[in-house]
Amino acid sequence: METRTETIKILCPNGHLGFAPLRPESFHRGVAERPDYLVADSGSCDIGPGPLGSDTSTSPFDWQRHDLEEMLLAARRLKVPMIIGSAGDTGSNSRVDLYVRTIKDLAREHRLAPFKIGFFYSEVSIAYLRQCLSAGAIEGLDGRPSLTQQDLDVTTRVVAMAGVHPILALLDAGCDVIIGGRCSDSANFAAPAIHRGLVPAVAFTAGKLLECASFCAEPYGGKESVMGEISASDVKVTAMEPGQRCTVASVSAHAMYERADPYFEHVLGGTLDMRSCVYEQFDDRTCRVTGAQFIESSVLKVKLEGAARVGERYIGIAGIRDPYSIANIDRVIGWARSQVQERFPDNGYDLYYHRYGLDGVMGPLEPVKTPGHELCIVVEATAPSAAIAEEACMIGLRQMFYARLPEAKGTAGSVAFVVDEVMRAKPAYRWSVNHVMTVADPMELFPIHVTGSAD
Questions:
Q1: In terms of pLDDT, which residue wins out, 143 or 272?
Q2: Is residue 224 a contact partner of residue 235, using CB atoms and an 8 Å limit?
Q3: Is the four-CA dihedral 61, 17, 223, 105 of positive or negative sign?
Q4: 406-434 burial, b if ≥16 CB within 10 A, otherwise e?
Q5: Which residues contact 127 (CB under 8 A, 6 or more apart)?
Q6: Residue 298 pairs with which residues in a beta bridge?
Q7: Contact 136, 438 (CB under 8 A)
Q8: Mean pLDDT score, 134-147
């Protein structure tokens, strides 16, 4: 690892590479500032367990390729490293392989001079986890109990969340492009800063602030680039889009983004403590941050994410404008549920009603109890077979139209359907693994590989 401590600049063009295309104008402005690294995260558990369970991407490949191409051409022109973490939305092995192939394809297409590609995997085999369970508990997160063999029985795929360690190893190996499996968002940015000799406190502060690109700027405008300038004592974050500013309010708010506790960011190897952070307006579009501390952990714990298949899924959509039906929406849905139960008395399905205009987003946490003047009801049915899921959804949708309510005078018009059919959706998955496992070596779950762009 290098020991230099000069200021470095990291450009982040997209908070979730490929989820929506990066905005070229602000990215090119950032490239013109000659950053030392181009870094982006490409994954999230926000997209749900489906992509991990099915081993697919939720982002269209053309959008992912677009962002990779923009970053690769700029990185090779500047002769600076390019780092992508959590490849292809999930960081599974197949998504890493997809990105490595895409980088090689782009290199051939643009006739780029040969360069070195490093990559690491993050998948953990079910068989290996079974062995680990026999040696000790794998702790649950967010109130979950410890992992069990029964949890693993239904799990289709598990990834571990890397820290800075595999990225540092690949930078040590002289890699020009690094493609990572599942990785902590902030570690993607902290690793190059640590590699240049900066302390973990400022490195992980930069990572926390840069990980979602222009989400730390105002006014809101997603997919714009931001620049992080990192020194031994501070981090400065600057919006590359002229219409945006990184302010004390926007940057401090983002530091608390997606936190159960707004002051702590836990990663493999330690915790970023932001309780003493100071946010200052450095110039019109730049916020300066100081004061964070990094607390090294005496025990190495790796987060595990795993998905289990629930079944096939169909959805149907209905609109309700009739005031009497809205006032009795629980009865309307109750009637429809009873008709599905009558058809499938032995269950074998799950039926959900998402009531937008009432509590469709927040569910029982919704504080406003008065419904709107119209409702959109999304009916979702899952079952082991597509045939049962389709029929359960169809009955659950259409029987709202026939709900038998007291004092109802008319025979029609209570419910309107967007289309007269139910639509097949992707299979349903659930999170079956959301746990942490103790390891002796921070690299033990993350094998690294090096290849050439022309190989």
A1: 272
A2: no
A3: negative
A4: eeeeeeeebbeeeeeebeebebbbbbbbb
A5: none
A6: none
A7: yes
A8: 90
- 201 and 207 Cβ atoms separated by less than 8 Å: no
Q: What's the length of the chain?
A: 455
**% the chain with pLDDT above 90:** 89
Amino acid at residue number 303: K
Q: Tell me the C-alpha distance between 174 and 168, whole Å.
A: 10
Rounded Cα–Cα distance for residues 375 and 385 (Å): 30
Which residue, 250, 251, 219, 217, is CA-closest to 234? 251
Which pair of tokens denotes residue 213?
Answer: 């690109």
**Full-model pTM:** 0.93
Per the structure block, which two tokens stand in for 52? Answer: 């991990």
Tokens of 219: 């006014």
**Both structure tokens of 226:** 């931001």
- 145: cis peptide before it, omega within 30°? no
Give me 93's structure tokens: 């092995």
Residue type, 54: S
**Strand bridging mode 270-273 / 293-296:** antiparallel
pLDDT digits (tens, 9 = 90+) for 38-61: 999 999 999 999 999 999 999 999
- Tell me the backbone φ, ψ of residue 285, rounded to 5 degrees: -120, 10
The rounded distance, in Å, linking the Cα atoms of 266 and 297 is 10
Give Cα separations from 449 to 49, 305, 390, 454 (angstroms): 27, 23, 45, 15
Domains and CATH numbers, the chain: 8-122+161-297 (no CATH), 308-430 (3.30.70.1130)
What's the one-letter identity of residue 448? I
Instruction: Determine the Cα–Cα distance for residues 142 and 45; give it in Å rounded to an integer.
Output: 14
Structure tokens that stand for 13 in this block: 């063009």
C-beta of residue 311 within 8 angstroms of C-beta of residue 389: yes
Question: Phi and psi of 385, rounded to 5°?
Answer: -115, 150
Task: Name the residue type at position 356.
Answer: Y
Tens digit of pLDDT for each residue in 364-410?
A: 999 999 999 999 999 999 999 999 999 999 999 999 998 988 887 77
